Amino acid sequence: MPHLPSTFRRLLEPLDRRLVSAMVERHDGNHGVGNRPSAWTCQRHLKTLLFAQFAGLNSLREIEQGLAAQPHALYHLDLHAPRRSTLSDALAKRPCDVFRDLCGKFIGILGRSLRAEGEAVIRLLDSSPIPLRDKRFTWAQADPRYPGLKLHVLHDPRAVHPVHFAVTAANVSDVRQGRTLTLHAGSTYVFDKGYTDYNWWHDIAQAGAFFVTRLKSNAHRRLVRPRAAVGEAILADTSLRIGHRKPRGGATNALYDTDLREVVVARAGKAPLHLVTNDHSRSAEEIAALYKERWQIELFFKWIKQNLKIKAFIGRSENAVKTQIYIAILAFLLLRLFHTTFASSHHGSAKDVLARLKVALFSTFILNTQRRQRTSHPDQLNLTLQNV
Question: What's this model's pTM, rounded to 2 decimal places?
Fold first, then answer.
């Protein structure tokens, strides 16, 4: 009987072995591991942590027992069931930069496969806290609210996946991280008031890109010229310039002479929304819709925190925690690609697909979406799959 690839193996197929090996070599990830057949390399560590993410495992013991329960399925994955001590050592010593760079490279691969030609390039920018309140996370820096880390994401709402990410200390401000982004002409960046920096907004405009964000209530408005307010919820649409030439502190406002646009949007039961943009060609309704689309990145953060292991960690070191965050993002990307390729005929949500994966990682993924299915003998099912 020919070997049928397991669902877990299909999930891992897009991770080219040469790409993984290149990232490991770049950071000398297997330093001190040795060449024994049982050596716990970064490659095996990666597969094991991805298995833990997809299976929803919460501890080293669960990972150890979960792999030990399926020894027959590990050969074709070049895996073996590790000891808890081996996993613990690997979490502390295998450099997290390997998995960070691998995740970054894979984002580019996924973007090319899911990008729709001719679509406007929209980028949603936001961050989400990852609290580490346990006193054993002694290395975690704190902002005024909590010690921990912060996950910064640039999200593509059309392809529904991140296009850039960074993990920083909790006390790194959103706008400070935003300034590190590579800006692309023609793209539209949508973000909230946490990214208020007139000089950075000027950089976006100079790069030939656009931004849409909220205008702070204390912003100094100048040269206000009304435009026609077109749209059901549009209260006002004006051209203006903002800020002082020399704000307090001696800084220079590079945005001082830039013509901008303010769109005021009515909200039921709430104060109107004041949006500012350097996009003068889109309609006011389109500008409002772009900012409303920012909710998609909030849903992304909510999804990965509810469905992947990114809130509770099985290691205490900074390297272990960051490794698990990077692996969680990579798991989301692999799931997204699996859903849009192999499981594209499955009309359920990503959560539905993940629920099936959890019980079918070492067997064959069944695409049938009917709630009630006739059971069949396993040999009959294998024969059917061989003929597909």
Answer: 0.90
